[in-house]
Amino acid sequence: MPASPTRDGPRVNEDIRVPQVRLIDQDGEMQGVMSAREALLRAYQVGLDLLEISPNAEPPVVKILDYGKFKYEQQKKRNEARKKQKVIEIKEVKVRPNIDENDYQVKLRAMKSFIEEGDKVKVTLRYRGREMAHQEIGVKVLERIRADMDGETKVEQMPRMENRQMIMVLTPR
User: Fold this and answer.
1) Could you check whether the bond before residue 10 is cis, i.e. omega within 30 degrees of 0?
2) CB within 8 A of 92, min separation 6: which ones?
3) What was the pLDDT predicted at 63?
4) DSSP strand E in 36-149: where?
């Protein structure tokens, strides 16, 4: 089996060092199996480059095309793909066990907007002082958040204690 390209990108022109290749011409027509030398001569006759499309095929498939244009198109595709990808951020919302109703609604609206943007939400419930004695109150608050957000989220990480705080992570469905 021939070695795959060592440098970045496919092999071009004289870098194609195999005895036989399957040639596709500049119009996309299959020309058949021939020597690599003959394929390279055909490419030079039309003023274009010989590019190895499928190095692991038997024999390798090469195509006559403009290598500069090919590289430009590949770069454009990479940039377009990079533009379309969304980086998922983790937004943190901090709550307390004895949170007031209005504050709770404000935090809930913030969480819903984060989820709509496609971000994960990390809900941190912090205990202070004697609140540690009544952890069930904090658990109820996190359960209420989970119930209120149930339609548009799923729980990635169930509530768990870390020192004096409980942490739960929600992700968009």
Assistant:
1) no
2) 121, 122, 123, 124
3) 92
4) 49-54, 61-65, 90-95, 120-126
pLDDT band, residue 31 (cuts 50/70/90):
confident
Instruction: Name the token pair of 121.
Output: 């939400």
Q: Which two tokens stand for residue 77?
A: 């595709």
Average pLDDT of the residues of the chain: 88
Q: How far is CA 123 from the centre of its chain?
A: 25
**Burial track 129-158 (b if 16+ CB lie within 10 A, e otherwise):** eebeeeeeebeebbeebbeebeeebebeee
At CA 140, angle to CA 136 and CA 143, rounded to 5?
135
Residue 1, pLDDT above cutoff 60:
no
Residue pair 43/6 in contact (Cβ under 8 Å)? The answer is no
CB 122 within 8 A of CB 167: yes
CB 56 within 8 A of CB 1: yes
